[in-house]
Write a structure and sequence with these properties.
- By secondary structure, the chain is an alpha/beta fold.
- Helices cover 30% and strands 21% of the residues.
- It has three domains: 1-144, no CATH class; 301-503, Rossmann fold; 514-574, Immunoglobulin-like, CATH 2.60.40.1180.
- It has helices at 21-38, 60-73, 78-85, 112-140, 159-163, 183-200, 229-239, 274-288, 307-315, 326-339, 371-380, 410-414, 489-503, and strands at 47-48, 146-150, 168-172, 206-210, 242-245, 301-304, 345-347, 358-361, 384-388, 416-423, 430-434, 437-450, 454-459, 468-475, 478-483, 485-487, 514-520, 524-531, 537-538, 546-548, 554-555, 562-563, 568-574.
- Mean pLDDT is 95; it is low at 1-13.
- Bound molecules: zinc ion.
- The site of zinc ion has 7 residues, from helix 2.
Length: 575
């Protein structure tokens, strides 16, 4: 990676590569100077490392370091690497680690294990560089926590790994408001990202590091935030567990790349603009909500989202050449639960499942060591697991599990064997009959053989009409639900509604656009009602008597107040 985030994939030596000892030393010296000068300054409460890490480098230093990582990963045994990467296929067998080059622009891309391990190396090398940045700070400003700003579902680094290097999670949220999607859809995608950020460090608030008060300058179309959406978006970050709302940028610069990026103060320098007024309203609102700081969301559900899994699916040569929609599918499961009043965490498969009642693991194609066993223990102990097509096909090296999918013993838990995977052409569809209702299924339809599970939904068309599409399998004290096709969102909503009803989670589907989030501390629960619709909505009955923090009004259990379009309410109750 280059410090400016540009890619250097053509090889050659680069003095500004993060692997370069010269560059690393310069960074240490700079951070030593800064830490000595500002480390004990009372105005400095947090240390922001480099900005928005990303990019990969293939210079000879990086290539050598990549080979070192491979030697370590494969116990200095080239045979072990050849097996993991299945290099005998197409005669790719390596005779020594020295022969291995990264998947450069003109390099090798068909060895899937090589591509995946390169992505892992890029994360590991960035983490190593971060530690190099932090060390002088720890020496001269040991009490200062450090952070760096993450980005929207960024594909270049495994943020689960990077998050372990820093003390506080922060991220830059630039949703594409008012694009061709409905506003509520953009809102729930944003909520998914917030839920991922907060779950990197469970039990700890995160920070909204960057947001724009109006528009950005770098998207294909830079639309203005419509009146009201800014306040609502800021509140959504807080509702999801952020303790800050920060801006990029305060004042528009006169020149260069981001001169037209939204700012609190524009080129007029005045405070009587629409944007400045809306920013002031947010400031007033945050003052009123100061008691929320330090409280945390405590969701009962989680969606598994894994970078290794994402990369393996992206690189997989099968199912479909086009986008296999991993991100989209994870967000759809999240959105279905959000509509039902649950606000799931988004966690990696290697994080603890403790404290959750339901885990959704959409398209968990790769099962890392121990994950299948931990999922079994989770369900045996009373949890609910929801899986989908493309579950448990490969191990951490992307080698297919032998003996049927899902592999690594997960078939015993799901009670189904995924015998075949049908990929439909755009525009084609099948139907799934579930609980007396018919839903559209498209893109991916997995054909199942029951291995103990009960068919709860069936395909209605094609040669697999009548065969299971949704299955349920009781296991220990819990239950495993498998959804074999890419069904429409209404189907996910109804499936989760039935599971939730049985588990006493969530509630009836909320009006379209309404989100409910909550944060708790030892004494209090804060509920956030956010209306991401232009139309007014009636809230579901208030569960217990509480106070509307922003208006000061007392509310009784059973009250059902109205919210105007883009309206919101935050209540506080005793726990
Ligand atoms: Zn390099």
């Amino acid at each position: 990676m280059l410090p400016n985030g540009k890619r250097n994939l053509h090889g050659g030596r680069h003095n500004h590569c993060i692997t370069s000892p010269v560059y690393r030393q310069k960074v240490r010296e700079m951070n030593t100077l800064l830490a000595k000068r500002y480390g004990s300054h009372p105005g400095v409460i947090l240390w922001h490392l480099s900005n928005e890490y990303g990019g990969a480098c293939c210079c000879d230093l990086c290539r050598a370091k990549f080979r070192d990582l491979l030697r370590e990963r494969y116990h200095n045994d080239i045979k072990e690497l050849n097996h993991a990467w299945w290099t005998s296929f197409w005669s790719h067998t390596y005779n020594s680690f020295e022969q291995i080059d990264p998947p450069m622009d003109q390099g090798e891309h068909s060895v899937l294990g090589l591509v995946l391990d390169w992505r892992r190396f890029t994360t590991a090398n960035t983490a190593d560089f971060i530690r190099n940045e932090i060390e002088p700070l720890q020496e001269y400003a040991p009490s200062l926590p450090v952070t760096t700003n993450f980005m929207w579902l960024f594909g270049g680094l495994d943020y689960n790994q990077i998050s372990k290097e820093i003390d506080v999670i922060s991220w830059d949220a630039y949703p594409r408001w008012h694009n061709e999607q409905p506003v509520y859809e953009v809102a729930s995608e944003t909520a998914f990202n917030h839920a991922m950020m907060r779950a990197f460090k469970r039990g700890q608030p995160f920070m909204l590091m960057e947001s724009t008060p109006s528009q950005v300058n770098w998207m294909p179309f830079n639309k203005l935030k419509r009146p009201g959406i800014h306040q609502l978006a800021c509140l959504q970050a807080v509702a999801s567990g952020s303790d800050t709302v920060l801006y990029f940028q305060f004042r528009m610069g006169r020149g260069s790349f981001e001169q037209f990026h939204g700012a609190v103060v524009n080129h007029t320098g005045r405070d009587d603009t629409r944007v400045f007024r809306e920013v002031s309203q947010v400031g007033e609102m945050l003052k009123d909500l100061s008691q929320v700081a330090g409280s945390i969301p405590a969701p009962r559900a989680a969606v598994i989202y894994d970078w290794d899994n994402r990369w393996a699916i992206e690189d997989m040569a099968g199912a479909a050449k086009e986008d296999k929609k991993y991100n989209e599918t994870c967000i759809q499961h999240f959105r279905a639960m959000l509509r039902l009043g649950e606000d799931p965490d988004v966690i990696s498969s290697t994080e603890s499942f403790a404290g959750y009642d339901l885990i959704a693991a959409p398209m968990l194609y790769m099962l890392k060591p121990g994950v299948a066993q931990r999922l079994k223990e989770f369900v045996a102990g009373g949890g609910v697991l929801v899986t989908t097509w493309l579950t448990g096909y490969v191990d951490e090296s992307t080698l297919a599990f032998l003996g049927g999918f899902p592999g690594d013993g997960l078939m015993e838990l799901t009670g189904v064997e995924a015998s075949e995977l049908d990929t439909l052409y755009p525009g084609q569809s099948n139907k799934v009959l579930w609980s007396g209702r018919e839903y559209r299924a498209a893109e991916f339809c997995e054909l199942l053989t029951l291995r103990g599970a009960k068919a709860a939904g069936t395909y209605q068309e094609d040669f697999y009409a009548g065969q299971p599409a949704v299955t349920v399998h009781p296991y220990g004290k819990g239950m495993s639900v498998h959804i074999a096709a890419r069904v429409e969102e209404g189907c996910l909503l109804d499936i989760y509604r039935d599971i939730f009803k049985e588990r006493r989670m969530g509630g009836e589907p909320l009006p379209m656009g309404l989100e409910i989030h909550s944060r708790i501390n030892e004494e209090k629960r804060y509920r956030f009602y956010l209306n991401f619709s232009e139309e007014g909505v009636t809230l579901p009955p208030i569960p217990v008597s509480c106070r509307d923090i922003l208006s000061g009004k007392e509310l009784a259990a059973g009250d059902a107040p109205e919210l105007p379009g883009y309206g919101f309410m935050v209540t506080v109750e005793q726990r």
